[in-house]
Amino acid sequence: MHDQEQEYLTRLYDRLDALRGETRARLDQVLASTGLGHQGLAERDVAAAELAGRAARLDSVENGLCFGRLDMRDGERRHIGRIGILDDTTDYEPLLIDWRAPAARPFYVATAVSTENVRRRRHIRTEGRRVTGVQDEEFDRGAEPTGDSALFDALDAERTGRMADIVATIQAEQDDIIRADHAGVLVVQGGPGTGKTAVALHRAAYLLYTHRERLTRSVVLVVGPNATFLRYIGDVLPSLGETGVLLATVGELFPGVRAELAEAPEVVELKGRLDMAEVVAAAVRDRQRVPEEGERFEVVHDGERLSLDRETCLRIRARARETRLPHNEARPWFRRWMIEALARAASERYGTDPLDGGSLLTDADKETIVTELRESPEVAAAVDALWPALDPQRLLAELYASPRRLAAAAPRLDRAERAALLRGPHRGWSPADVPLLDEAAELLGVDDRAERAAAAAERAERLRLAQEALDVAYGSRTTDFDDGDEPELLSAYDLLDAETLAERHEEADHRGQAQRAAADRTWAFGHVVVDEAQELSPMAWRLLMRRCPARSMTIVGDIAQTGDPAGAPSWEGVLAPHVGDRWRLAELTVNYRLPSEIAELAAAVLRRIDAARTAPRAVRAAGVAPWREPVPAGELAAAAGRLAAAERARTTGGRVGVIAPAGLVAALAGPVRAAAPDRVDVLDPRTAKGLEFDSVVVVDPDRIVADSPRGLNDLYVALTRPTRRLVVLHDAARPPSPPLGDL
Ligand SMILES: Nc1ncnc2c1ncn2[C@@H]1O[C@H](COP(=O)(O)OP(=O)(O)OP(=O)(O)O)[C@@H](O)[C@H]1O
């Protein structure tokens, strides 16, 4: 059966190579097409993007192209793989069925009890284009399926530091979630290692397959907690043939801002509170000024002093606010009504008949006054001082820099909280600022007149350059072809007009949809996957909901792992303000990462976090119990290095994580690196979230707990990172509290 599968696999790869060749040839052909009008260019663009996507998909499925076979009771045979491939020699019969197609589903869900008409399930193991193993599960003999060895091999494999896809071994409870046809918000709650991240990414791939056109256009966004995590999961979707997905942290979701500033946890918590939405709104209102009590609005125009009383200004401001337009879009209205009021004041002053008090001015005179005032730079400056054009960065920077503005915008925060927000000269943005910038952008709106004018000017310039280029081409044509010997040769000038050439230029700038989405704050994503979702603050949720007006979301996380002080205490609390109770909860219950020995220890910590929670069930034992290493306090760093080196030496390519309190990471990094130069990471529990290692050294667990209000959760995260071995390192004079102290 090995040879038979090898033969089949070779045939599949031959066909894959042929498809790659065909796709590239078609892409070249499409890209080379010339002489197209507006419509033709747009169509060419769409066709090229589709072919380029297909070429990328075909390239990315080289490894593990086919991994399974189903023999159905009626004799039908289905090979299952990363993509679907049809046979061009027969009547386009499927040679390989995409794992996401309904016909592949029994591969994941058939059991001895519910066979789904499957007689035999075959797991095919490959290396490159070679079959290295075949293993069958027979459903006919009523025997217990034995097929889990493919799963156990995957779980026991050494970790590379990059997450791998699980397409060959998806388990039934995971498959249910991946293929759930729920269109709205789906929350996947599950303990550490239950495959939440894997499931969320495979669900994204499944949705892209099922709604290819819509989601390619609207883009799927995957949100993760930090850059390390995004790097860790970055290979999974490409290995499933999906490249047009945007991976980002919330801090990266405000185009034009790099949020790299680190802030104290209490400031992060404060900025994440829902109250901040009101603070930003009040900060915007605070920038819509009127003269102080007892003062007037005054402006000198044409040598004359004009003024309005405070009440008039208050009325105009109220009217401008009543438009309910964002600040920058209401601004022209404010300005218009202020100018009208000034014009009225001016005409009253100069044009009143001294005899009967009536107006001496004609309508045309009044119109002239309005026009003059509108064009007056002094008037514009004075009105702008009351209602200035603002961008989000300026609004927030000026808010953080001013105790007066903070006091006006945040009366509900206490003195210490306001002081925590105060920042002095601008030092850049933190990830917690991004949702506030986004909030501000919503309230300010864009006054994009300047941008539009710039775009028009740019286009005119491009046209001019194109015309110049064509003129040069035309000039050279007369010298090149003046003898008329080669009339069939066409010059650029014959083929193109300036406008087309300018458009070509624009297309050279053509970016993928995902990049376009990344650069556009107002992009509406077709589906949003949020991983480690428990970490997001209420303000971050507001931002994400804005990015996904359709509310088509897969949210995965574990409330018991919430470490961020601004993070979620419950899914209800997170989601109610945005979707009410219109969301569905799915749970994962099996722990695929931890061996049972470590899972037991982690479960004891979980009970201390919340006695009501049940830890996920581990599926395998490692045969090694977690243990602890007491050392003299001064030798922690050296011991961490020694242990990391010993653990690293146990694997050939696997990885070791040294997880320590944030304050110790810097001190440990040097000695650990000296002892174990590669395949070892030193990190704090927050950064370790979502990652996994073959072996983990947890350093000073009691300090991890003491370091933060959610310290026990952080310890739980640290203990649940290993796939095989766990050692706890601590100061010999201070044995850790139970349950770790009991080891
Ligand atoms: N069906 C499966 N087949 C093979 N490996 C699996 C399967 N399900 C999960 N795994 C593996 O188990 C490990 C844990 O999965 P994953 O990281 O998705 O869990 P998680 O629930 O997101 O964990 P955490 O809450 O700690 O972030 C990963 O190595 C993943 O590849």
TrEMBL record:
ATP binds at residues 190-197. It comes from the Bacteria. Gene3D superfamilies: P-loop containing nucleotide triphosphate hydrolases (3.40.50.300). Signal peptide: none annotated. Residues 169-595 form the UvrD-like helicase ATP-binding domain. GO terms for molecular function: helicase activity. The keyword Nucleotide-binding applies. SUPFAM superfamilies: P-loop containing nucleoside triphosphate hydrolases (SSF52540). Keywords: ATP-binding, Helicase, Hydrolase, Nucleotide-binding. The keyword Lipid metabolism does not apply. PANTHER family: DNA 3'-5' HELICASE, UVRD / RECB / PCRA DNA HELICASE FAMILY MEMBER. This is Helicase. The lineage of its organism: Bacteria, Bacillati, Actinomycetota, Actinomycetes, Kitasatosporales.
